[in-house]
Amino acid sequence: MSETDKFAVGYLGPAELGGWLLFLIIVLSFDALLYLLGAIAARHSYILIVWRLLLAALTASAAYFLAIRNRKGVLLAKLYFAIYLVVTLVGVARLGTTNVLRTSLTCAVTICYYSYLARSSRVKAIYFSGS
Q1: Nearby residues of 87 by Cβ (< 8 Å), 6 or more positions away
Q2: Helical spans, DSSP H, in 7-99
Q3: pLDDT tens readout for residues 43-90
Q4: How many whole angstroms separate alpha carbon 86 and alpha carbon 32?
Q5: Could you give the CA distance from residue 96 to residue 63 in angstroms, rounded to a whole number?
Q6: Do 73 and 66 meet the contact criterion of CB atoms below 8 Å apart?
Q7: What are the extents of the domains in the chain?
Q8: What confidence score (pLDDT) does residue 9 get?
Q9: Which of 26, 19, 11 is nearest to 121 (CA)?
């Protein structure tokens, strides 16, 4: 690729925030907002309030650190997805589920995002390059 092609409109180098990584940051930010609103709505269950506030803090900090290109964001996002997967599977095992498709899609998306953070060359270039 020539030097002039690198400055073309829409070009993102391997070490730029964009694509699925940018979408992940937006999703984590939106999840943090939903957890915060859920904590506000759960007025009488203190355990649920604390749980949702912890998840809101985890997702918000993961999104923030990913956005500022700090490698802590990758660890926090992986931690969030691991917790989310475990809670989903434990909930299915304990409570049962009537919507197998929704649970399967939730698990598949969670595993995809976790593996994206673990194996993506863009994530490695941005967060784990020589610096």
Answers
A1: none
A2: 19-41, 46-67, 72-95
A3: 888 888 999 999 999 999 999 999 999 999 999 999 999 999 998 888
A4: 18
A5: 31
A6: yes
A7: 17-127
A8: 46
A9: 19
